[in-house]
Amino acid sequence: MTQTTTAGPGDEPPVSTSEVRLLEGPNLYFPRPAVKLTLAVPGWVDADPDRMRAACRAVGLDRVQPGSPGSGQ
Questions:
Q1: Which residues contact 4 (CB under 8 A, 6 or more apart)?
Q2: Is the entire prediction scored with pTM above 0.70?
Q3: Are 55 and 45 in contact (CB under 8 A)?
Q4: What pLDDT, on a 0 to 100 scale, did the predictor assign at position 34?
Q5: Dihedral over alpha carbons 23, 28, 31, 37 (to 10 degrees)
Q6: What is the mean pLDDT of residues 28-49?
Q7: 9, 48, 60, 72: most buried, per Cβ within 10 A?
Q8: What is the C-alpha end-to-end distance of the chain, expressed in Å?
Q9: CB neighbours (10 Å) of residue 47?
Q10: 5 phi and psi, to 5 degrees?
Q11: How many angstroms separate the CA atoms of 15 and 69, rounded?
């Protein structure tokens, strides 16, 4: 399942949903039912830290420490 949701920072492809799993009972992540959502975030992975801090502040995340562009953090 792939669904476009929002644009990345610049001319990069938009963020999209790459997997949605309904975990109907106790599972690896929680002792109760849950939803596992995996997003593809091209463009955001390579964004510079200042741009990431601004994006995080815009959604109410004030204490973020973005990693280096291209890293997994």
A1: 14, 15, 16
A2: no
A3: no
A4: 93
A5: -40
A6: 87
A7: 9
A8: 25
A9: 20
A10: -120, -45
A11: 17
